[in-house]
UniProtKB/TrEMBL annotation:
Residues 213-243 are annotated as: Disordered. SUPFAM superfamilies: Homeodomain-like. Residues 1-26 form the SANT domain. GO terms for molecular function: chromatin binding; transcription coactivator activity. Transmembrane segments: none annotated. This is SANT domain-containing protein. It comes from Balaenoptera physalus (Fin whale). PANTHER family: TRANSCRIPTIONAL ADAPTER 2-BETA, TRANSCRIPTIONAL ADAPTOR 2 ADA2 -RELATED. GO terms for biological process: chromatin remodeling; regulation of transcription by RNA polymerase II. Gene3D superfamilies: Winged helix-like DNA-binding domain superfamily/Winged helix DNA-binding domain (1.10.10.10). It comes from the Eukaryota. One of its GO terms (cellular component) is nucleus.
Amino acid sequence: MAAHVGASRTPQEVMEHYVSMYIHGNLGKACIPDTIPNRVTDHTCPSGGPLSPSLTTPLPPLDISVAEQQQLGYMPLRDDYEIEYDQDAETLISGLSVNYDDDDVEIELKRAHVDMYVRKLKERQRRKNIARDYNLVPAFLGKDKKEKEKTAKRKVTKEEKELRLKLRPLYQFMSCKEFDDLFENMHKEKMLRAKIRELQRYRRNGITKMEESAEYEAARHKREKRKENKNTAGSKRGKEDGKDSEFAAIENLPGFELLSDREKVLCSSVNLSPARYVTVKTIIIKDHLQKRQGIPSKSRLPSYLDKVLKKRILNFLTESGWISRDAS
C-alpha cells in the first residue's frame, strides 16, 4: 500500500492511517461487529466414525489382580489375551509374500486374504468392546454383583429379569447405556399404562379428582375383603358337606359305586349316567380285545353316544391303560 501511495508515506504511516480511518473510524464501527463469531468448521468425525481419532486410542487395561490376569490369560500392557477370538485368523496372511512375477489374479487373491484378515480383526475388537462396555470380565470373575447392589436404583422383578434375558441378543447392537435407557423406558411405559388404566377406572366410576380416589380405594378394598371372606366361608361349608358333593348329580344313580374317582369325575363332567358309561366301556374294551385276537367285530355303540362324547371316553380309557393308543 505504501508503494502504491508513493514515497511521501512510509509503511508505518500508511498502516496507522488505515487503522484509524477504516477500522477504528466510523466505517469500521458501522461494518465490523464488536464480537467476531468463530466461523471455523470442525471437520473431525464423531466418536466411533470412520476417521474418528477414538479408533486409534487404546482402551485402558482391565483393573484386575495378577491372579485373575493369569486365570484369564490377560496381558494388561497389550490389552490382549493369550487365546483370542478366531485364534487362527493370522494364518490367512502369515504365508503371503509379494513377488515381482505375480500376475493380476494372484495380487487380487492376496488382497482378498488381507481383507478377510482385517474383517476378522475388526470382529475381534468389536467383541472386546462389547465385553468392556457390559463389564463381562468382572461378571465372569463375580465382581459385578456387589457393584450392582450398590448402584441399583430400584429392585428388579422376576419378569424384568426374564425380559432382560430375552433382549440379550440386542447387546451387540447397542451400548450398555443405550440398553439400560431402553429397558428403563420400557419399564416407564409399563408403569404409565398401568396408571392410565387406573385413571380410566376412576373416570368410569365417576371420580374426576384425585382427592376422591383415596375414599374410593378404601371402599373398594372393603368390598373385596368382604367378598373374599364370603368365598372363604363358602369353601369351608363345601368342604364340610363332604368330598362327594361334586358328584351330587350322579351319586344316587345305579352303578355309581362301581366307578373309580376318575370315572366319577368324567361322568360328572360329561353329564353321563354311571350305567350308560359302564355299558359303553364294556363294548369298547370287548371290541378292542377281539381286534387284538384277530376276530373281526363291528362296533355296536349306543345311539346316545355322539362323536365328541365317544372321543372323550376313548381318550380316558387310553390314558388309564384299558386300551392301547393305536386302537383309540
